[in-house]
Amino acid sequence: MKVYKVKNYEEMSKKAANIIASQIILNPNSVLGLATGSTPEGTYKNLVQMYNSADIDFSQIKTVNLDEYKGLSKDSDQSYYYYMNKHLFSHVNIKISNTNIPDGSAQNGQEECERYDNIIDELGGIDLQILGIGNNGHIGFNEPDEVFSKGTHEVKLTQSTIDANARFFKTKDEVPKFAYSMGAKSIMKARKILLLASGKSKADAIFKTINGPITPQMPASILQLHNDVIIVADEEALSL
Ligand code: F6R
User: Fold this and answer.
1) 36 lines ligand 1 (CB under 6 A)
2) What's the gap in Å between 102 CA and the centre of ligand 1?
3) Per-residue model confidence as pLDDT tens digits over 127-138
4) Which residue lies with its CA nearest to atom 11 of ligand 1?
5) What is the pLDDT of residues 84-130, one digit of tens each?
6) Residues 6+ apart with CB under 8 A from 170
7) For 159-183, what is each residue's pLDDT tens digit?
8) Which of 7, 57, 104, 215 is the most buried (most CB within 10 A)?
9) 149 vs 161, 181, 240, CA distance in Å?
10) Residue 139 gets which letter from DSSP?
11) Contact 139 CB / ligand 1 (< 6 Å)
12) How many CB atoms lie within 10 A of CB 32?
């Protein structure tokens, strides 16, 4: 693991955007694995600025997102589909047909998970996977568990994740309790992984990701077994 310690959220966002931009420049046909949440918002903002100054071109880029809430349709302003359009897709020249996000409104969960795994396979796997991390160490929505997950699957979100996500919803009751998420195995198959973390609430999870035992109780710890992981984290996230 290569760990870059940066001062704060702004520096993390700039560094992460530079790494993603390098990937796009080196391979304009890249398959990017994308994350949502607060952590990558600044990264996407920086990427949009680079696009506006003609430094990068998304026209051949393909994307697969990590996860989506079950039960939310594309038009819901809390869906990750909505988030991606708001923060990245609508600002750059990516072809929407080249973007992929699990369909939260799918009637048949198992079929949707299989469909999503097939998409990743047909794209030839992920070149660069961007990850945030939950306070409990989740990556994607792979929550602490007895075993590591494999492919895309339906997840029952833990109370700690529901509480953490409540800030995006009007009331706690509105926070979805289930999601579709890429599995740990799918994430580990990405050729390169970029994990981002900012703030004190991530310090314990980041400490255990880097130093702790490799255990499904701390899902991000599996990244220790990947041979090309870059962590960009700020001083608070690395404070332990
Ligand atoms: C989002 C995702 C999650 C988040 C994590 C951190 O697509 O897969 O693992 O990265 O919950 O969320 P934030 O960045 O909001 O702290």
Assistant:
1) yes
2) 15
3) 999 999 999 999
4) 134
5) 999 999 999 999 999 999 999 998 999 999 999 999 999 999 999 99
6) none
7) 988 998 888 888 888 899 999 999 9
8) 104
9) 17, 10, 28
10) B
11) yes
12) 23
| CB 57, CB 21: distance < 8 Å | no
Residue 179 CB–ligand 1 contact under 6 Å: no
Is residue 130 within 8 A of residue 35, CB to CB? The reply is yes
Read off the amino acid at residue 238: L
DSSP string, 147-178: S---SSEEEEPPHHHHHHHGGGSSSGGGS-SE
Give me the pLDDT at residue 168, please: 86
Strands of 229-234's sheet, edge to edge? Answer: 2-6, 229-234, 192-197, 128-131, 31-34, 62-65, 99-100
- Pair type for strands 178-181 and 67-69: antiparallel
Annotated catalytic sites, by residue?
67, 136, 138, 143
With helix as H, strand as E and coil as C, how does 201-216 read? HHHHHHHHHHHCCCCC
The span from the CA of 202 to the CA of 9, in Å, is: 12
Distance from C-alpha of 206 to C-alpha of 21, rounded to nearest angstrom: 24
User: Tokens 């760990």 correspond to what residue?
Assistant: 3
Question: In this structure, what token pair is assigned to residue 197?
Answer: 């973390």
Lookup: tokens for 212: 């702790």
Q: Is 138 in the pocket of ligand 1 (CB under 6 A)?
A: yes
